[in-house]
Write a structure and sequence with these properties.
Layout: H1 26-29, H2 33-58
Length: 76
Amino acid sequence: MNQYLLMTNMHMVSSQYWNQIHGFIAEEAKQDEEGLQTMRTLGANMAYLLKAGEAAENAGITKPEYEDVTFTNFIR
C-alpha cells in the first residue's frame, strides 16, 4: 500500500462546531457547556461511524481498493 494512502481517503467525523473546550484549568473547562456538548456529539458520531463500518463489513460490503497515487508537479 502506498504510504500516502494512510492519510487520505479517510472518513472524517464531524460534530456541531469546532472540536475544542475552553478553560485555563480543568474546573473552567468543565463550565464550557457548549464545548462539552460538542465533544459529546463528536463521541456519538465517532461511535456511529465505527458501528456503521462494522455493520457494512458484516454485510459483505468491502472497502474500496485505491489506485497507487500519481504525483505531478503541474509544471510542463
